[in-house]
Amino acid sequence: MAILVVCSCKAVYSQKKRVCPKCGSPKKERGTRYQVVVREGGRGTRKHTRFANTLAEAKEAELRIRNQLDSNINPAAVKKGITMGEIFRSYIGFAKNPNAREHKTSWKKDEQRWRDYLAPDFDNRRADAISRDDVLAFLKKLEGKQSRVGKPLAPATRRHALHLLQRLYNWAKKQKKYTGHNPTTDVLITVKNEVGRALSPIEAQTILATLAEFGAEEQPLTDRMCALGLQFALLTGRRLGEICTLRKDRVNREDEEAAFWDEKNDCWLTVPISSEALAIIIQADAIGLKDATLVFTRDDGKSIYNQMQYKWRKLRDTIDLQGFRIHDFRHTFATWVKRKVGLLASMGLTGHTTITHARRYEHTEGDVLRRGVDAVAERAGLRNSVQDDKPTS
Length: 393
Known about the structure:
alpha+beta; hpI Integrase, Chain A; 3-stranded antiparallel sheet; 15 helices
């Protein structure tokens, strides 16, 4: 390990000498630089070289190399610069391994987000060459990008891409594959989730009556299936994707249960269903293709996902529910269930894993608030108590 002097004439010599042995120039003459040489072991082992303009910078470089060697980091690799693509491929290899600490059941989603959003901008970029401005420009670019169905990317999608980039930097530092700055620090994406709403009992009855007419026997099979699927959404609170992927072999008619694939948590969720919801499944099975795998299908046996969205947009305008989404059936289900069995018990039906998420789907209705303020007058003795269903908190 040594710090050598590099003269302007390209000669390299020890700091103990006051002048250059080749040209006689003094050591402190303008144009002099310093060469740092650090060997991994004794003579004959691999050495690592750096150049510095001042002696202080040379000492700092020497200390940095020594610390890297002590931490089992290859200084040559750090100098060359690891790319984000190399970091991702190393990370995803561990994420796929069920025995690794980094194992994630959502590694397929990480691969998709990297391939579709991050790779075009960062795959061949060195990790230390990416600045905070580059990250902000990338997020701005995503705002103008469209999804596979031609819609602008949701804020949550952009946030997932940012979180993956942050996770790669943090993991690379923890694994000592990268020791530089993290340009994703303090970069945030605020997601304002679309506010859902719950139906009133009168609105729900109007919808069910309209769907019954829409799904009459003389209507095409796809329309009848869409009507049944929308009724099923209200009675079960399942997401549109879960309804459209419900398989016949996942329905237990004897126990009145059904298993849905929960994409949010990557697992099967088995929940009880009402006899009315089971009757909808039986009706769909009766009018659909006998060899179809799915419960709700088109006349060719394929999913009715897009058809349900299209038909619902047409129907909701006829019953004055502009802006009401199919997903709001889930909000209605969660609100009504919570009033009967409580928030924690309702989570077992909706599949929410945290109270924070569950509370987003619970909407206190006006009649419940009215009973609350009326209870004060009753307690004060200003009116007679009226017996009503006891709300469950």
